[in-house]
Amino acid sequence: MLGLSYWVVPIFSSVVWTSMLVAMLVYWAATGKPHYSTMSEGQNIPYISGRLLWLHVHIQTQANNDQDIGADVLKPMFIAMSAVTVVTFDFAFLFERWLRHTNKLHPNTSNWQKFYSVCATVAAIVGAAGLILLTIFDCKHHNTLHNIFLCVFIGGYIISAIFICWEYQRLGVHYRDDSILRISFWIKLFFIIAEVCLVIAFGVCSKTHKWNVAAVLEWIVSYVYCLYVASFFIDFLPAKRTRHHQSKETEMQMLEEGGQPTMQANGTARLQDPTPLPSRNF
User: Which keywords does the record carry (predicted)?
Assistant: First the structure.
């Protein structure tokens, strides 16, 4: 993959997502922790999705009248960085499917496992679409659509994680000695349980008008999602080991066949034809 290891993809996605969250928090703190018009009375901590995208400032006009001007300062960044995060993360699902198909990761041992993998990928794509759309349809101007797409985003990735756990559990039955499969399974199971509990708590706090607690929970949900994305680098580590292992096997096979292996520019071995023996004329 252009000389890069596959594990770089989920790491890149998580770094982009984390950078966006940190930038939003820093911006809010640097501007004096203002109380946005979309925040409820008594709420001191802003939400991420939509609430932190609008900078409301008061300027003094020549007539000494206050005007409330909403400028979408952070919205372009929110849309762009969210899109980059989920699109590259979806590529991680596609790469994982391809590596299993080409035996660079443990191949699926049944059609059901392939079905689970495809379902996980489709659900992740749906979740990605939900995030991109909720960043476009902000809660200030499209509150209903925003909440719908928020549910699509969270639900899509939770369902995706369920199918991945299902696939990895079945793979673990056939590859019991692979500790990476076991570790990855438990990480994704933790994500499912944690996100479901946090989302339920967020919904309860929102309904009971505990806005600050709900806002904190939303930030926690976002950071847990970041850790979930980053955890996918573990799944690609065997692909790197397999590549080096296959290169070593190829080199040994070449030596057994009498050829002299040479290293190519990409780091793989190539067999030189053995020195031909002079022919005899009878």
Answer: Golgi apparatus, GPI-anchor biosynthesis, Membrane, Transmembrane, Transmembrane helix
